Amino acid sequence: MPPPGGRHGVCCLKLGRRIGNYVEKHQLGTVASNDTGFITERNPDTVRGPDLSYWSRARLPQVPEGYIDIPPDLAVEIISPHDHYSRIQQKVRHYLNCGVRLVWVVDPEDRSITVYRSRQQATILEETDTLLGEDVLSGFSYPLAELFS
Questions:
Q1: To the nearest whole number, what is the mean pLDDT of the chain?
Q2: Does residue 44 have a cis peptide bond before it, meaning omega lies within 30 degrees of 0?
Q3: Which domains does the chain have, with CATH numbers?
């Protein structure tokens, strides 16, 4: 696939910086970007790499050199112009099925974020809403108007 483009990159950096700063300030764990791979299945191995990922310190006390064996607590996908809805939904289902606790799908064009807690529970946030870390990143909040400005 071709590189995603400017809006995707800016959105990814802004959200990643905000999550990373929060996690670092509160010494909560590890945040990764750039499709850092984690193993979702064995024999045969399946590896996924969200745009942004967060692991609590309790679940990932030390970052390995290779792929991470533990699914992240939070996986973030930022939709690019070349993404297809069905492909994004497939990723979301895969993340949730392998144990990711919270998935955010960010749509920079629509200026919205869909928050998935399970396959049955999703919430669409608009630009006037605030994104919350819920019990995964307790205390984290980010007004979407700032993200999409």
A1: 93
A2: yes
A3: 6-147 (3.90.1570.10)
